[in-house]
Amino acid sequence: MIRKSVLFIVPDYHNSFSLSNSLRARGWRAAVFVPKGYPSRFLYADNLLRQWSFGDRRGRFGVTANILLSLLQYLVLCIRFRFHVTYGRMVFPPSYEAEFVRWGWCEDDFHIGLQLSRLFGTRHVFIPSGCRDEDLKVRFSQLDGEQMCGNCGFFSQCHDKENAKYIGRARRYAHVRVTLGFHLSGAMSTTPIRYKVLDFDRWTSPNRGYDDRIVVLHSHAAESRNLIPGRNIKGTPIIDTVMERICARYPHVEYRRVTGLKSTEMLVQHQASDIVIDQLFYGHWGSTGIEAMGVGCAVICYLRPTWIHQFRQNFPNAPEIPVLSATKDTLEEVIERLVNDRTYLREVQIKTRQFAEEFFDPEAVSQEFEAMLLGLSRSARQSD
Predict the structure, then answer these.
(1) Per the domain annotation, does 119 fall within a domain?
(2) How many CA atoms lie within 13 Å of 113's alpha carbon, on the beta-carbon side?
(3) For the segment 51-74, what is each residue's pLDDT rounded down to a tens digit?
(4) 46-60, 84-98, 100-114: which range is least confident on average?
(5) In angstroms, what CA-CA distances link 52 with 67, 69, 114, 151?
(6) Considering only Cβ atoms within 10 Å of each terminal Cβ, which end of the chain, N or C, has fewer?
(7) Three-class secondary structure of residue 180 per DSSP
(8) Residues 51, 189: one domain?
(9) Does residue 202 sit within a domain?
(10) What would the pLDDT profile of 16-42 be if each residue is shown by its tens digit?
(11) Nearest to 358 by CA among 300, 319, 316
(12) Residue 349 sits in the same domain as residue 368
């Protein structure tokens, strides 16, 4: 097994591809693994490792055959890659854990593939993909008078019994659990570290002119935001209403709301925009905000004060945050100032690009990430 070898299991949008490229430049064997069913439009590269499969086989025999094939592939990956960085719940390879639990053979956080990986000395890094991977619903529902959970389209599908199982699995198998440094989990110990990077050869900042038009962009994933009518974690209906009023008052403002685009198409949209509205309820920027900062857009996003305080404590040397915080009540005011004052707009755009170049710098972040990986003990996992 090559000592400096890392596999990113499930892409974290652009980040897994950019970080793997940076690590390869530092002499690592690095690859991105895409499980079956991962949306192809979110892929940023074609040089991927894909899940082995006999096809969509039905019945007990067909399902079992695919499970055994995935387990075999996973063991091969354990031989090839010493470090596994999993984005989101640790569910690969698929298996029959639920039945094992029902039969009383193991605890509900047990996973046969992860258990076998210990035989190969595999080091696991767990990166939560969202709130339910990081903490329990009962804690998140207390934030902002239930504004966060109260606007989530997944609310009825989010159950703490299931959340606790997967958080328990991360506690059981992950040697380190990495977070962005905003939320302090009450369900597991975590390590805040910079791991988000941007490939600035691709995320280029266009030379924005001073023509009459100002483009305001908002994007969301259609299939995941409105499972419950009236709930939308990004606040899209509110943003639409505010922008309708803004465009009526200011003819030079153009509002674009896009959904379902490929990642490469979103990059083009960001480069053609002046202002990007990320979200109004979650509490910190996500991949949309990072990519928008990378191309020098002014970014509007609700920043929860307690989370920003925690972020600054975790990253005291981080540059000043250029993201403009807005709630559903202040969004219109924040946008109006930007579209009425082009000098101010340009100042914000310059600051966002500078923040991105420093905080998401691929060379600096990959160096820190490399040090974390090499520092992992063979046997010790992060204690709780």
Answers:
(1) yes
(2) 22
(3) 999 887 677 778 888 889 999 999
(4) 100-114
(5) 10, 7, 18, 37
(6) C
(7) coil
(8) yes
(9) no
(10) 999 999 999 999 999 999 999 898 888
(11) 319
(12) no
Say if residue 240 is in the same domain as residue 157: no
Question: Which tokens hold the place of 306?
Answer: 């307690």
Q: How many whole angstroms separate alpha carbon 67 and alpha carbon 113?
A: 11
Of 286, 157, 290, nearest to 221 by C-alpha is: 286
pLDDT value of residue 209: 61
Close Cβ partners of 161 (under 8 Å, ≥ 6 residues apart): none
Sequence-ordered list of residues with C-beta below 8 angstroms from that of 148, at least 6 positions apart, any chain: 131, 140, 141, 233, 281, 282, 283
CATH number at residue 51: 3.40.50
pTM summary value? 0.92
Supply the range of the domain harboring residue 138: 5-197+363-374
Question: How far apart are alpha carbons 45 and 110 in whole angstroms?
Answer: 33
Q: Are residues 230 and 159 in the same domain?
A: no
Task: Write the CATH number for 266.
Answer: 3.40.50.2000
pLDDT for 107:
82
